[in-house]
Design goal:
- This protein has 92 residues and is of the alpha+beta class.
- Helices cover 25% and strands 24% of the residues.
- It has a 4-stranded antiparallel β-sheet.
Length: 92
C-alpha cells in the first residue's frame, strides 16, 4: 500500500464521540467521491461492491473482482477522525 506511513501522521487519535466517519458505508461514500475525481463512474461501477475495513483510525476501502478475474481494484484510505481521504490508488 502507498501512503500508509504518512497516513498515520495525518489521522490523529480522538475520542470515539468525535469520530467523523463512523461506518463502512460512510467510508465507502467518502472514498468513492474522491475516486470520481480520478476514475469515471462507469469504470468504478465495474468494481462494485466496495468494502471497507477499519484499522486504528483509518478506513481502508477496496473494490471487488469477479471470482474468475485477475488484476487489481481501485482502493483508498480515509481518516475516521477527520473524514479526510488520505490516499487513492489502484492495487495490482
Amino acid at each position: 500500500m502507498t501512503g500508509t506511513a504518512n497516513a498515520k501522521n495525518e489521522c490523529p487519535e480522538t475520542p470515539a464521540n468525535q469520530v467523523v466517519i463512523t461506518s463502512a458505508t460512510h467510508a465507502i461514500e467518502a472514498t468513492k467521491k474522491a475516486m470520481l475525481k480520478i476514475y469515471k463512474a462507469d469504470y468504478l461501477a465495474g468494481f462494485e461492491p466496495f468494502t471497507a475495513e477499519k484499522n486504528n483510525n483509518i478506513w481502508y476501502v477496496y473494490g471487488s473482482l469477479s471470482p474468475d478475474t485477475f488484476g487489481g481494484t481501485p482502493e483508498g484510505e480515509v481518516c475516521a477522525t477527520t473524514g479526510k481521504v488520505l490516499d487513492i490508488y489502484h492495487s495490482q
